[in-house]
Amino acid sequence: PSMASGHLCKLHSCASRLLYGATLRNVQSKCCFYSYEVEIGVTSDGKTIVCYHPAVDVPYELTQPIERPDPLTNQAETHDQVLKAHLSKEVLDGKKGPTIEELSKMFFTTKHRFYPKGQYVSRRINKTPPKDR
User: Fold this and answer.
1) How many domains does the chain contain in total?
2) Residue 30: domain span
3) Is the terminal CB of the chain with fewer CB neighbours within 10 Å at N or C?
4) What PANTHER family is this protein classified in (predicted)?
């Protein structure tokens, strides 16, 4: 049995309990240090399960500040710096260059862009494009 079938089985058992029981139930759940209330219901035709889970208030003591660098002292990374970080000496040590998979991840595109084109495609490319006026 796969993980998805386990989730479907749990969902089916939950739905069947809801269909034969009350249409709306309150479920108390403990998560680490606080509890939150979840309301589960079924529509009148019994085809849709409806869940309401409001946002949980996190205690201030458990939060951390977001680091915001000073724009005057810290310069933003340029494209060259990002590419140099990806193409550092440690990455290219002993290699001729990045692999096709590394290039596709680096430039956020598919891998097919970096494979060579076949003769059929290269023959169809117009070698002498028309001149601009």
Assistant:
1) 2
2) 26-56
3) C
4) LARGE RIBOSOMAL SUBUNIT PROTEIN ML42, MITOCHONDRIAL 39S RIBOSOMAL PROTEIN L42
